[in-house]
Amino acid sequence: METEEKKHQAYLVGIGVMILLTGLTIGEYFMGAYASAWALPILLVAAIKAFFVVRDYMHVGRVFSGDEEE
What we know:
This protein has one domain. Helix content is 83%, strand content 0%. The protein is built from three helices and no strands. It starts with a helix and ends in a 5-residue tail after the last helix.
C-alpha cells in the first residue's frame, strides 16, 4: 500500500509542477510580447522553469541518491 501512496503523491507533485510551468510559460510569453526590454526577468523565469523540468521530469535526483529501486 505504501508504493501506491508514493505513486499518488508523485502524481500530484507532477500535476502541480505542470500547472506551475504552464503559468510561468504564459507569464513569460506576455513579458516577451509586451515588454521586450525585460530580458533579465525573462531569463530568470526561464531558469526557474528549467530547474523544475530537470528536478521533476528528468529525475536527476535519483542519479545522486544512491538508493536503488527495483
